């Protein structure tokens, strides 16, 4: 009986070695499945876009050209630096007016889309679209598309949503609008006179 023991011992050791090699060669599915199931965090826009163009440092000429391609023309405004647009009979998600304020250097400072939106589905969609594009608001709230919120974006722009009543507005602001310097030169004589 003891003569079988060494042969049995060799078989058991060989089976254990083969099983160990096979076990080591198999990939660890517990870590790969966990890594595969992790969903990447959504990326949100870092800067405001209005009608598909970046809002930061947007010039009047570029903006008006883009709006005319969309078929929008400004109607007369009696205030300097202000342009008003109609967004059509149905509007964009129910919003039918656009008011744009330009600074003295002809860059957009503020654009306000506003109107009375009676359809609850359109109102809800408005807040939802902004939240999907820019993420959760920096200040305020958006619940089921409704709310009052502000997004402060990293490029120096800001978006403000007022969507708690039928009177809805979305305001795009460039917190530091571009300014054109008169020239790249320093007027030494003017500085000297000012300091005396």
Characterization of the model:
- The strands form 2 sheets. This protein has an 8-stranded antiparallel sheet with strand order 3-4-5-6-10-9-8-7, with helices on one face. Strands 1-2 form a two-stranded antiparallel sheet.
- The protein contains 5 helices and 10 strands.
- It has a domain at 49-174.
- The protein is globular.
- By secondary structure, it is of the alpha+beta class.
- It has helices spanning 4-25, 29-37, 60-69, 120-134, 188-195; strands at 49-50, 53-54, 74-75, 82-86, 97-102, 108-116, 139-143, 146-152, 157-163, 167-174.
- It starts with a helix and ends with a helix.
- Keywords: Signal.
- It comes from Marinomonas fungiae.
- This is Uridine kinase.
What's the arrangement of secondary structure elements?
Layout: H1 4-25, H2 29-37, E1 49-50, E2 53-54, H3 60-69, E3 74-75, E4 82-86, E5 97-102, E6 108-116, H4 120-134, E7 139-143, E8 146-152, E9 157-163, E10 167-174, H5 188-195
Antiparallel strand pairs: 1-2, 3-4, 4-5, 5-6, 6-10, 7-8, 8-9, 9-10
Form type? globular
- Provide the gyration radius in Å: 32 Å
Helix content: 25-40%
Which percent range describes the beta-strand content? 25-35%
Order of helices and strands: HHEEHEEEEHEEEEH
Strand order of the largest sheet: 3-4-5-6-10-9-8-7
Average of pLDDT:
80
Low-confidence runs of at least 5 consecutive residues: 7-26
Number of helices: 5
Largest sheet descriptor: 8 strands, antiparallel
Which structural class best describes the helix and strand composition?
Answer: alpha+beta
User: How far apart are the first and last residues' alpha carbons, in Å?
Assistant: 117 Å
Q: How many β-strands, per DSSP?
A: 10
